[in-house]
Amino acid sequence: AKADGSGCLRFFEPESDSRMRQRRALESDLRRAWAARDFELFFQPIIDMKTRRVSCLEALLRWNHPDRGSVSPETFIPLAEEMGLIVPIGEWVLSEACAAAMTWPENLRVAVNLSPVQLAHIGLAEAITASLARTGLAADRLELEITETVMMKETRATLATLERLKALGLRIAMDDFGAGYSSLRNLQRFPFDKVKIDRAFTAGLGHSRQSAAIVRAVTGMCLSLGMVSTAEGVETEAQLDALDREGCTEAQGYLFSKPVPAKDVAALLDRLACA
Ligand code: C2E
Ligand code: CA
Ligand code: CA
Ligand code: CA
Asked: Quick one: pLDDT at residue 157?
């Protein structure tokens, strides 16, 4: 039996034959899918709490598998990381996201998730510069979201990379704040523009005083440090009201919209502008 909950243990346990076979199958499917570019970017709006307008859209990768349907990025991204495929896939994501943003109103930014593997790859800054140059997107319209696992090791190299990306004019967000081994030291040490509060805290708003207290503390800290705070996973009006009270600056979640295909972004923006 595999105690799978913790994620870390998984890799050290022997995999059963059938699991191994499944994994191999998924690996070869993924390789084929990448060769055929069977991927698509969806976009989810992020709302500015003051204006109640869309300020940014987050790009979220989808794999349309012929038999399995839409495979979750939570499943295939770790696999792509292990296979070394995440670097070319990640470059494709960056390039597609920049191209999509060029079709939107100029005041909207695009946020792209970066894998720790990409951040450790020496070609990252060049790939980003190339995407911006090829599409003509202004650097200040691109945001990079990174999780804290990135910062656990190779602090100096990571810091140098982030400083370099900042120098290009990009914004950098810490993703899933509070979900893992969060360290306030990371907020001090790395040049973040934004903190994305993990949806576990948003979920508690309205019935958990602890969640409200944590959200209030994080948003207050962001304000003092000159950073934007974005609440993830906002699903109800009650949560939105609580976020407003606690001083959160941005909100994202199903309450506004699920992630939508690129072709539906224009209609989505219309709907949210009139909301
Ligand atoms: P994430 O960056 O934390 O993205 C937010 C996830 O929460 C997305 O799942 C989104 O669809 C979901 N979500 C948004 N609003 C709500 C809500 O109100 N309620 C609930 N329950 N969920 C909500 P998704 O698209 O399945 O992505 C999962 C994760 O996969 C992402 O988490 C991110 O870590 C990773 N990922 C997605 N696209 C990429 C990519 O292009 N590159 C890399 N490296 N990772 C990606
Ligand atoms: Ca994200
Ligand atoms: Ca997140
Ligand atoms: Ca996440």
From this structure: 86
Tell me how far the alpha carbon of residue 220 is from its chain's centroid. Answer: 22
Q: Which residues, judged by CB distance below 6 Å to any ligand atom, belong to the binding site of ligand 1?
A: 44, 59-61, 72-74, 77, 93, 113-115, 145, 175-176, 199, 233-235, 253-254, 259
- What is residue 49's predicted lDDT score, i.e. its pLDDT? 96
Give residue 57's Cα distance to chain centre.
10
Q: What are phi and psi of 251, to 5 degrees?
A: -135, 145
**Tell me, what's the ipTM?**
0.98
Q: Which residues have a beta carbon within 5 Å of ligand 3, which is an ion?
A: 175-176, 232
Task: Say what the pTM is.
Answer: 0.93
Residue 29 near residue 64 (C-beta atoms within 8 A): no
Q: What percent of the chain has pLDDT over 70?
A: 92
Q: Which of 174-183, 223-232, 256-265 has the lowest mean pLDDT?
A: 174-183
Sequence-distant contacts of 72-77: CB under 8 A, at least 24 apart: 75/26, 76/26, 76/30, 77/115
How many other CB atoms are there within 10 angstroms of residue 253's CB atom?
23
Q: CA 253 to CA 233: how far, in whole Å?
A: 4
Q: Over the range 73-112, which residues count as b (16 or more CB within 10 Å of their CB) and which as e? A: eeebbebbbeeebbbebbbbbbbbbbbbbeebeeebbbbb
The protein residue with its alpha carbon nearest to ligand 1, atom 30, reads 73
Q: Ligand 4 center to residue 139 CA distance, Å?
A: 24
Q: pLDDT for 22-68, tens place per residue? A: 889 889 999 999 999 999 999 999 999 999 999 999 999 999 988 88
Residue nearest to atom 2 of ligand 1 (CA): 113
> How confident is the model over 222-237, as a mean pLDDT?
97
